[in-house]
């Protein structure tokens, strides 16, 4: 297993997401709070959490590899329940967080899911709607469209007789401008 070296916030590398979250403590006492505000930083494969954004040493770190993430409304019974998410991995500790808003919780989940897909494959994942369609500019089987396409192009060509001295038009192959 790869050991994670604790780092100050500024040295965590390529930060993909950061911000304050409430983290559920593993062992909360009768007097201590069950949820503690933490500055959380996510880079390509590691989740760091600090006491605050200026902390030199993280309170904890873990590799997100092999974890799964999901919204977890069952973690709280109060008005913040729609802001909760958790990271789980069989045989490892479950991490539970509350974001400042439901939208922010969804964004954390989306970012972590994106990284998890990236870590589990050799290629960077992309959404289906982001994929470019492959198409042919000129369909050789449809000669009628090709002919009308060429005619349209010819109509858009500038008339060389009407050109001014400014030479703002591109000279097409086979056409010569008569400069005087």
Automatic annotation (TrEMBL):
Residues 14-117 form the PH domain. Its main location: membrane. Pfam families: PH. The keyword Nucleus applies. It is found in: Cell membrane; Cytoplasm; Nucleus. Residues 158-169 have a biased composition (Acidic residues). Residues 134-180 are annotated as: Disordered. Residues 141-157 have a biased composition (Polar residues). Keywords: Cell membrane, Cytoplasm, Membrane, Nucleus, Phosphoprotein. It comes from the Eukaryota. InterPro entries: PH-like_dom_sf, PH_domain, SKAP_fam. This is SKAP1 protein. The lineage of its organism: Eukaryota, Metazoa, Chordata, Craniata, Vertebrata. The gene is Skap1.
């Amino acid at each position: 297993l790869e050991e994670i070296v604790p780092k100050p916030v500024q040295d965590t590398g390529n930060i993909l997401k950061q911000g304050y979250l409430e983290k559920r403590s593993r062992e909360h006492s009768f007097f201590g709070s069950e949820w503690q505000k933490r500055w959380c930083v996510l880079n390509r494969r590691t989740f760091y959490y600090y006491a605050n954004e200026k902390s030199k040493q993280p309170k904890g770190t873990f590799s997100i590899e092999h974890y799964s993430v999901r919204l977890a409304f069952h973690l709280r019974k109060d008005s913040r329940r729609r802001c909760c998410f958790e990271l789980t991995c069989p045989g490892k500790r479950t991490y539970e967080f509350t974001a400042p808003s439901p939208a922010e919780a969804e964004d954390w989940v989306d970012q972590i899911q994106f990284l998890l897909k990236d870590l589990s494959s050799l290629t960077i994942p992309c959404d289906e709607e982001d994929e470019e369609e492959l198409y042919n500019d000129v369909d050789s089987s449809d000669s009628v469209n090709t002919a009308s396409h060429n005619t349209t192009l010819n109509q858009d060509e500038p008339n060389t007789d009407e050109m001014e001295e400014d030479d703002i038009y591109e000279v097409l192959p086979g056409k010569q401008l008569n400069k005087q």
